[in-house]
């Protein structure tokens, strides 16, 4: 069979030729995508002119004819005759758009919390850091307490103080771990054991060494935070983008965990849990957010005992969290349904119990499938939080409206909303881009790119 | 159809059957809704025994072996695996699953984990093996299935035959004493079938207790201590491969054999 005789036809592949010209390069691209035929060309010309017209008008309104310095809206109008933007008003009100009525001298606390969160989460993007989940979990679980204390100020209860100290200790742990990793230790744990000389002295002691180190950190943090004297800022004074981010941030970070739990509950074999979760999801998904907000603010207090006089913001946040969880639950359920039955069977056959199967095998795969939907949901939630303006919370949208009703800037309606739109666009666009990046990198199509 | 896949001239592998019973099914019945899939199944498997189960499609072969590790629940009768009774007690089920490995027709590797991680996951999370130890063991097993160089790849980057060998290594990593195979080569191209069967023959030589659902009759002749023929949820006939192929008793078996050997 391997012998070749003269009768055998020998297969010779044809040489590869370059593609015909006009199909590659800039010209090829233009031809294919913009001027593929008379109708395509017409569409291209109309489209480009439309874009040019809009861009030109925006430029005229927003830059060429705009006024950057003025004391009142009247002054602006005198210059622009209504043909240009009055950015002077926006910049005067900028502080309000960002912080609402949060006192100027206390605003550093808001900024500080923002910086702390950014620094806390930064190791997420460091290639050398392993336990990234722990970085995220520590921030999600304890940062809210630290932030609440910073934002609210005043006398903190013992519980809040303890949580603040825990948060600070975890923050320090995350960054000491970064330090240890870049100094060549496998992890902070090993570094601590090695430096304290316990590495080879019996594994059962390790736990105590590590706990001890954490304890020392906690005591220092606790002592430090008890020296803070922060003026109280009631939530009525919170506002602007800051308030929007607080509400949507809590909504977003609680949505995924609670959504996962609800979705698992809905698929549970136990009837009580299944019925409860299904009812919860269906109820809150079929009601508009604004209704839930009104219910929360006006009806909830009626059900609660009189002594508890809940903060309006707390009620709103609870409502947003419930709403977000119900939506997320359905996304998660969809993701779970995309996972092949064989994956469950393989996991069960090797003896993994339900929770290990879910966390190690099913969820990681489902989450990857769900990323676009999850981020889409987050973006929607961020925008939906502007509804809180209707029930009188001074979020960025209501601040924008308020600025046009202010004596000096009476009548300034377009500029604040353009500005708000730009802020939302930037935030949402970044989230969207980041989600696309995540889709590409997480598991990288499992090695197939 | 597949007598040629393994050279049928090769000798039957010596078996090392002990008289210790590892699996015992008595009067097992199972229904899917109204449909009676398993009818009064009695089966005793001894330690070290290699059993091949064959039969037409839909006869309940998969269902039978999936009852042994509780991927399917039976409604009547008793199943005893390694001396543990299969019931609704999760502890018992987990104990059984730890010691029973399973290989699927569609591999079911975890696509988000590398080959090595696929093999170390269960030892680490179920048996609490330290990671370094689990890695070492997994590498040994990957060498045994002859793909140590693929350890860092993802399943999606491997051929079907390679994936199935990883799946076998993954099951072996739990150090099971019983291995169940559900048509392990049915999803494979002909060239890849033999590389998987080779691994299974090696496993048989090492004395593993194996229950294999397969249509690879060459494999059955060479490896099986007993061939079981199922139809319509019943065990129609069971015998040594020699007797089974050369001297089938039941007319149903004869028909089946003539059909599959006709190809
Ligand atoms: N989950 C299920 N629900 C209802 N019927 C089922 C289910 N799984 C299998 N069956 C039915 O039970 C019968 C036996 O199925 P089983 O998978 O055990 O057959 P098999 O012998 O393995 O067949 P094959 O060779 O095609 O794999 C089939 O008729 C099948 O349609
Ligand atoms: Mg089957």
TrEMBL record, chain A:
It comes from the Bacteria. Belongs to the binding-protein-dependent transport system permease family. HisMQ subfamily. Coiled coil: none annotated. This is ABC transmembrane type-1 domain-containing protein. The lineage of its organism: Bacteria, Pseudomonadati, Pseudomonadota, Alphaproteobacteria, Rhodospirillales. Keywords: Cell membrane, Membrane, Transmembrane, Transmembrane helix, Transport. PANTHER family: INNER MEMBRANE AMINO-ACID ABC TRANSPORTER PERMEASE PROTEIN YHDY, MEMBRANE COMPONENT OF AMINO ACID ABC TRANSPORTER. It comes from Thalassobaculum fulvum. One of its GO terms (biological process) is amino acid transport. It is found in: Cell inner membrane; Cell membrane. Residues 241-431 form the ABC transmembrane type-1 domain. It is a multi-pass membrane protein. The chain crosses the membrane at residues 41-59, 108-126, 133-152, 158-185, 205-226, 238-265, 286-306, 312-332, 353-375, 416-434. One of its GO terms (molecular function) is transmembrane transporter activity. GO terms for cellular component: ATP-binding cassette (ABC) transporter complex. NCBIfam families: HEQRo_perm_3TM. Pfam families: BPD_transp_1.
UniProtKB/TrEMBL annotation, chain B:
Keywords: ATP-binding, Nucleotide-binding, Transport. The gene is bztD. It comes from the Bacteria. SMART domains: AAA. The keyword Transmembrane does not apply. InterPro entries: AAA+_ATPase, ABC_ATPase_HisP-typ, ABC_transporter-like_ATP-bd, ABC_transporter-like_CS, MetN_ABC_transporter-like, P-loop_NTPase. One of its GO terms (molecular function) is ATP binding. Belongs to the ABC transporter superfamily. It comes from Thalassobaculum fulvum. Residues 23-257 form the ABC transporter domain. This is Arginine ABC transporter ATP-binding protein. The keyword DNA repair does not apply.
């Amino acid at each position: 069979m391997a012998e070749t005789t003269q009768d055998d036809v020998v297969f010779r592949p044809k040489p590869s030729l370059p593609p015909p010209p006009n199909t590659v390069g800039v010209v090829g691209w233009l031809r294919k995508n913009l001027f593929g035929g008379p109708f395509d060309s017409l569409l291209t010309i109309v489209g480009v002119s439309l874009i040019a017209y809009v861009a030109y008008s925006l430029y005229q309104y927003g830059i060429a004819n705009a006024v950057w310095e003025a004391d009142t809206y009247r002054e602006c109008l005198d210059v622009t005759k209504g043909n240009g933007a009055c950015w002077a008003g926006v910049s005067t009100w900028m502080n309000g758009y960002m912080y609402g009525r949060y006192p100027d001298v206390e605003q550093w606390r808001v900024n500080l919390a923002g910086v702390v969160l950014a620094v806390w989460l930064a190791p997420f993007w460091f290639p050398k850091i392993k336990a990234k989940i722990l970085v995220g979990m520590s921030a999600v679980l304890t940062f809210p307490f630290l932030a609440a204390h910073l934002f609210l100020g005043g006398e903190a209860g013992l519980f809040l103080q303890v949580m603040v100290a825990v948060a600070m200790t975890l923050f320090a742990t995350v960054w000491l771990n970064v330090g240890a990793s870049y100094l060549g230790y496998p992890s902070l744990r090993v570094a601590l054991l090695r430096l304290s000389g316990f590495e080879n002295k019996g594994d059962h002691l390790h736990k105590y060494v590590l706990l001890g180190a954490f304890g020392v950190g906690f005591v220092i943090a606790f002592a430090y935070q008890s020296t803070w004297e922060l003026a109280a800022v009631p939530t009525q004074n919170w506002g602007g983008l800051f308030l929007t981010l607080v509400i949507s941030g809590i909504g977003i970070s609680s949505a995924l965990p609670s959504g996962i739990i609800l979705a698992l509950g809905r698929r549970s074999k136990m009837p009580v849990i299944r019925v409860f979760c299904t009812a919860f999801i269906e109820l809150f998904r079929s009601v508009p957010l604004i209704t839930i907000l009104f219910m929360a603010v006006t009806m909830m207090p009626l059900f609660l005992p009189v002594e508890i006089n809940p903060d309006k913001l707390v009620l709103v946040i609870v409502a947003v969290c419930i709403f977000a969880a119900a939506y997320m639950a359905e996304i998660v359920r969809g993701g779970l349904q995309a996972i092949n039955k064989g994956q469950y069977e393989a996991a069960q056959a090797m003896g993994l119990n339900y929770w290990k199967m879910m966390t190690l095998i099913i969820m990681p795969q489902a989450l990857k499938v769900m990323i676009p939907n999850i981020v889409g949901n987050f973006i929607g939630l961020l925008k939906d939080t502007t509804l809180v303006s209707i029930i009188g919370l001074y979020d960025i949208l209501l601040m924008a409206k308020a600025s046009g009703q202010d004596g000096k800037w009476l009548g300034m309606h377009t500029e604040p909303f353009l500005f708000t739109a730009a802020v939302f666009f930037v935030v949402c666009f970044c989230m969207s881009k980041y989600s696309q990046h995540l889709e590409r990198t997480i598991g990288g199509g499992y090695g197939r790119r | 159809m597949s007598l040629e896949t393994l050279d049928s001239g090769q000798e039957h592998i010596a078996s090392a059957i002990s008289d210790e019973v590892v699996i015992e099914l008595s009067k097992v019945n199972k229904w899917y809704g109204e449909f009676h899939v398993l009818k009064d199944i009695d089966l005793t498997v001894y330690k070290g025994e290699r059993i091949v189960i064959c039969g037409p499609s839909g006869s309940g072969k998969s269902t039978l072996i999936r009852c042994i590790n509780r991927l399917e629940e039976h409604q009547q009768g008793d199943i005893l695996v390694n001396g543990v009774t299969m019931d609704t007690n999760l502890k018992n089920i987990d104990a059984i699953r730890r010691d029973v490995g399973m290989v699927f027709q569609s591999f079911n590797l975890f696509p988000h984990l590398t080959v090595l991680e696929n093999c170390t996951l269960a030892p680490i999370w179920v048996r609490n093996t330290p990671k370094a130890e689990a890695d070492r063991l997994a590498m040994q097993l990957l060498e045994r299935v002859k793909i140590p160089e693929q350890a860092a790849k993802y399943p999606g980057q491997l051929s079907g035959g390679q994936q199935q060998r990883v799946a076998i290594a993954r099951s072996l990593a739990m150090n099971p004493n019983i291995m169940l195979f559900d048509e392990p080569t049915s999803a494979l191209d002909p060239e890849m079938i033999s590389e998987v069967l080779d691994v299974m023959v090696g496993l048989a030589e090492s004395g593993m207790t194996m229950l294999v659902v397969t249509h690879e009759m060459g494999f059955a002749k060479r490896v099986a201590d007993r061939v079981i023929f199922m139809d319509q949820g019943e065990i129609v006939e069971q015998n040594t491969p020699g007797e089974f192929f050369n001297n089938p008793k039941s007319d149903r078996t004869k028909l089946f054999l003539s059909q599959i050997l006709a190809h």
